[in-house]
Amino acid sequence: MRTRIFAGIVFFLLSHAVFCQQKTNIGLLRGMPSVVFSGMFSNESYEFTFYDSAQELVKAMKDGFVDASNVPASLAEKVAEHSEGKLLVPAVTSNTDVALVTTDENVHFFSDLLGKKVYVVKDSFEERFFRSLLSLSAIPVKTGESSIEIESMNSFSALVSGLVSGKITCAVLSEPYVSSALVSSPLAFSAVDFQDEYVKIYGNGKTIPKTVLLVLRQYRDSRRKDYSKFLEDVKNSVYFVNAHPGQSAGACKKKKVMLPVNSAARSIKNSHFVYQETDENFRLMMYN
Q1: Which residues contact 52 (CB under 8 A, 6 or more apart)?
Q2: Between residues 21 and 122, which one has the greater pLDDT?
Q3: CA 37 to CA 235: how far, in whole Å?
Q4: In this predicted model, what pLDDT tens digit does every residue of 59-116 receive, in sequence order?
Q5: 254: burial class by Cβ within 10 Å (0-12, 13-18, 19+)?
Q6: DSSP notation for the chain
Q7: CB 222, CB 234: distance < 8 Å
Q8: What is d(CA 36, CA 48) in angstroms, rounded to the nearest whole number?
Q9: pTM attached to this predicted model
């Protein structure tokens, strides 16, 4: 009788401990940034919540409702700098996958674009990166046969549609739009990998991060054990994403992450997912 009572008490305490275990709240943005967590979606240690915009997500983090997220590196650099120390960037989770996609079989290098028109999304990181590489390569950007003309469109979806319809021949894209264009148009191909061009200029080992972890400092400081487990789980999730892009795409579909249906697995496979720890003085263009 005593043994049964003791066993019942132990079972109650263990059940109560599990029930009361504090979960880590992870904020998600629909699209590629959330793919990093696809190996963790079924882990009951985490509570996942989608936010409609990066602004809402950052506010939720500053207000203490979200412990961690994965966001574009350019966004993280800005918000971490102006968060009064509330937000940290502990790791890079993917490197840039920007590419020049074209239907012009004569284009294989930036120099082949002289006298041609290239379409970008205005004020995007992709446009800024493109202009930076052209400047560093001493390739002029103007109008005429001896220079490149850059035109803007409102969205990456519009660029893909333009390539598919034949209205445009050259566009600067990143995943998942690169894969979407290649799948949708039999004439499209990836002519220039911007990361390769960056390496040519700065040397091997130099990278430009695309997404990074953004973490609430209070979460790190007050829940050290949970924080360490979170980082380890993200690291394992990145391994899962790279090793099993099809399964990762399936987990994202189930979670309604919203990737292009016709190229989700391919987009994940061609993205440069990594896990690289940073320091608290993270800077996007200086990272190597």
Answers
A1: none
A2: 122
A3: 10
A4: 999 999 999 999 999 898 888 778 888 999 999 999 999 999 999 999 999 999 999 9
A5: exposed
A6: -HHHHHHHHHHHHHHHHHHHPPPEEEEE-TTGGGGGGTTTTT-TTEEEEE-SSHHHHHHHHHTTS--EEEEEHHHHHHHHHTTTT-EE--EEEEE---EEEES-TT--SGGGGTT-EEEEETT-HHHHHHHHHHHHTT--BSSSTTSBEEEEES-HHHHHHHHHHTS-SEEEE-TTHHHHHHHH-TT-EEEEEHHHHHHHHH-TT---EEEEEEEEHHHHHH-HHHHHHHHHHHHHHHHHHHH-HHHHHHHHHHHT----TTTHHHHHHHSEEEEEE--TT--TTT--
A7: no
A8: 13
A9: 0.86
| Alpha-carbon gap, residue 168 to 266, rounded angstroms | 23
d(CA 271, CA 241): 10
What distance in Å separates the CA atoms of residue 89 and residue 134, rounded to the nearest whole number? 29
All residues at 6 or more sequence positions from 189 whose CB lies less than 8 Å from its CB, including other chains:
101, 102, 103, 182
Q: Which amino acid is at 283?
A: R
Length of the chain in residues, anyone?
288
